[in-house]
Amino acid sequence: MGHNCKIDGVEGVQVFRGVVLQVLAWGWCGCNTYLVYGNDFPGPDGGLLGEVEAAEAALRDAAERGLAGAAGRQGADEATLRDYFTAVIEADQKIEPRDWMPEAYRKTLIRQIAQHAHSEIIGMQPEGNWITRAPSLKRKAILLAKVQDEAGHGLYLYAAAETLGVSRDELVQMLLEGRQKYSSIFNYPTLTWADVGAIGWLVDGAAIVNQVPLCRCSYGPYARAMIRICKEESFHQRQGYEILHTLSHGTPAQKAMAQDAIDRWWYPSLAMFGPPDTASTHSEQSMAWKIKRFSNDELRQRFVDMCVQQAEILGLTLPDPDLRWNEQRQAYDYTQPDYDELMRVIKGDGPCNRQRIEHRRRAHREGAWVREAAAAYAAKDRVRQEAAA
Ligand SMILES: [Fe+2]
Ligand SMILES: [Fe+2]
């Protein structure tokens, strides 16, 4: 047999084969868990999930460290409270709902978390469009679960926003009246099945690059929600990548469909990181408050660098003739997205803005009876409990 295994016969052969496969797996994807835990596909997350886990560990550490002077919260004057707030942020501790915070910090967070929550909910629509037309039972089940995850993300985020003293009803109302925004990416249509793959790979991929640093955001409830969300998003990205991989290794028509989807989603995905740093309005203060940790352009670059290698594995091309490695910068040079188009879509003039918000308004109207029934049940329950007490 050529090895010192003490197991004889068939079992020995199996062990030997297992070891060989394990070594191959280790060489192939740089880990020794590929076959052990049954991963079905080498994932594209580029180490981001590791960063989420590190952020989670840091969050636990911070919770155990505590901060000297925390007692200064009650009855203190504003200067003392402000000092405490600054000290918490500088020590990489978390601001919690019970803590004093500057009004601008609270408002910035409400705006950002609400916009994020709205994006999760509106983001259910482009892919929801394909649930009835998914090409197989397996694809349908995965897509259903994915779209349902996005509803869950919206829920965690509305709950995180509510800790800042605003109600979910108010936030939903602001979305429906167009007073708060959602990510402009969801105003683009999903024309083919391959778009579901492109959304998972590129749109969820860009979302993760954006959101992993938010796992270290200074506001505790937001950071904790982001950890859970990022873990789920990494699976969303993986499923999109796997759809594209299957299509690009299928018939010429399937490969062309995958390429067409990437051609249409690439630049809108780059635009998800927002305007370039030179034109970004909220960044500096958000960085100082440790809500934001990297600039729009830094995150966009990171995303581009990740996607180039992944596109090669997919056997598909990113639609940018000027994409090339820059030895000096140790990063890829790339063509910027059309920021004028981004601004037009944000202002309401994208291909599907009207359709998305109309659909959300209708769903909200049609769900009124559910909200009323839940409120009536809660009221009855309260009366029952009071009577029993
Ligand atoms: Fe999500
Ligand atoms: Fe997602």
TrEMBL record:
SUPFAM superfamilies tied to this protein: Ferritin-like (SSF47240)
One BP term from GO: phenylacetate catabolic process
Domain of life: Bacteria
One cellular component (GO) term of this entry: cytosol
Organism whose genome encodes this protein: Micromonospora pattaloongensis
InterPro entries: Aromatic_CoA_ox/epox (IPR052703), Ferritin-like (IPR012347), Ferritin-like_SF (IPR009078), PaaA (IPR011881), PaaA_PaaC (IPR007814)
GO molecular function ontology, one term from the record: phenylacetyl-CoA 1,2-epoxidase activity
PANTHER family according to UniProt: 1,2-PHENYLACETYL-COA EPOXIDASE, SUBUNIT A, PHENYLACETIC ACID DEGRADATION PROTEIN PAA
PROSITE patterns, sorted: PROKAR_LIPOPROTEIN
Pfam families: PaaA_PaaC
Name of the protein this chain belongs to: Ring-1,2-phenylacetyl-CoA epoxidase subunit PaaA
